[in-house]
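Thread title: Can someone regenerate the structure for this chain?

I was given the following input by a collaborator and told the matching structure tokens would be attached. They weren't. Posting the sequence so someone can regenerate them.
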Amino acid sequence: MRHAIALALAVGVTVGAQSPAPQWPQFRGPSGQGLSDASGLPLEWSESRNVAWKVPVPGRGWSSPVVGGGRVWLTTAVQNKGEASLRLLAFDADTGREALNVELFHIWRDDFSTNAKNSNATPTPILDGDRVYVHFGASGTAAVTTDGRMVWKARLPQNTQHGQGGSPVLAGGLLIINCDGFDDPYVIALDAATGKTKWRQARRAPTSQAYSTPLVIHAADRDQVISVGASFTSSFDLATGRELWRVGYRDGFSNVPRPVFAHGLVFIATGFQQPTLMAVRADGSGDVTRTHVAWTLARGAPLTPSPIVVGDEIYVMSDHGILQCLDARSGKTYWVQRLEGAFAASPIFADGRIYFLSEDGVTTVIAPGVEFKPLARSAIDGETLASIAVANQSLFIRSATHLYRIGTK
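Best answer:
Regenerated them for you:
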């Protein structure tokens, strides 16, 4: 029961989160924090068991699936010699049939160099009514109707080493994007209706190589945009972009995990070279590095997977498979376990269970709590870096080549 209550609170504190309907509208779900109130999900599966459908996905992309309006949405980059077509795809959620495949932007070889574990279609789309918002980094950002018609498009300058990783967030009629890179890093809020800039804030650091997705929360009677960058994380006022507070971490950069928020604390991964997880109280003003850091985790912090809070505990998965359960308020460690494989996808909580997907297609399911209780271990074929989506009593998993609906119905 306490986990169900915690989920309701988590969904409620995230500004712009949609009601807990059977859909998954953005990266990490309705709250942006990997939490779902779904039930009736499969516990175990394989290539020959509990796969409702499996369909090939053209091109290469690591955007996570989003689900709404009876469709599953992805982006992809279809490369052909020296060029690439950046596309939006939709599949019928019941059958897996391709329902939409439309090119939104076109790029050339000089534009599509990425890290081996990244792609030119890594940011996850956002669903909102009859609109789909997509972001391909400096290659293009757009609002598209659900029948594939372009509403507006924009190009946001961004000079990155490894391509774009972070997804946008939609809140208060604004599409908010971290645009971090080697020079002139900034955070921008676009009018979701028109694509025009509503506010833009430069990063304090002269360079800000980072790949994180913002999180919008309501805390201390303020709507806050929590934006993780190199050296600093800032909280911006949602409506105006004014910086409310910031917390620093020496030499942190290339941050990937999306922050999470619970119990009045924002949990932030500081990035390379030595990752740390920081729990920061969200009611500060100005530089809060010395005043509002409640606790830190220096060993086993993630470089890539986002943490997840379920009830009073936070679960932290390192890239190398070290899973820890800690008290979210104090940082006290309850248990540490090694799971097989490497991890990039962010975990989800659904149907009273926590799902951890490895890069090798293996999902380990555990029961939440202060004792480690493994429940199941299931596998599909292929590489899996995208995060799981939950809808319609099913799990939607993207591999390097296919999209799966895992479910019994």
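The helical segments are 2-13.
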